[in-house]
Amino acid sequence: MASIGARKSALDNAAMESWFASYKTEELYPGGQPHTRAQARQRLFAYVWEYNTQRRHSSLGYATPHGYAAQSSTCP
């Protein structure tokens, strides 16, 4: 992905910072700190899976990625 801001600019990391804020707010803080690396990994992967498949995204008109792909003429 091309950078949208100058080097070391806050705009350069805005998308990832937004994702981490969502992860912390929705998964990490309510569930507490993981006790082991295995637990941390499992929780992270579960969150990523839910985020990428079931969570509604404002950039997709508040549709899930699966729902958006089903409605889009550009996706098979």
Report on this model:
The protein has three helices and no strands. It is mostly helical and about 80 residues long. The chain has a domain at about 35-75.
**In total, how many beta strands?**
0
CA-to-CA gap between the ends?
23 Å
Q: Helix proportion of residues, in percent? A: 55-70%
Largest sheet: none
| Derived structural class | mainly alpha
Please provide a brief summary of the model.
This protein is mainly α and 76 residues long.
Provide keyphrases for this structure:
single chain, 76 residues, mainly alpha, flat
Q: How does the SSE layout of this entry go?
A:
Layout: H1 14-31, H2 37-53, H3 65-71
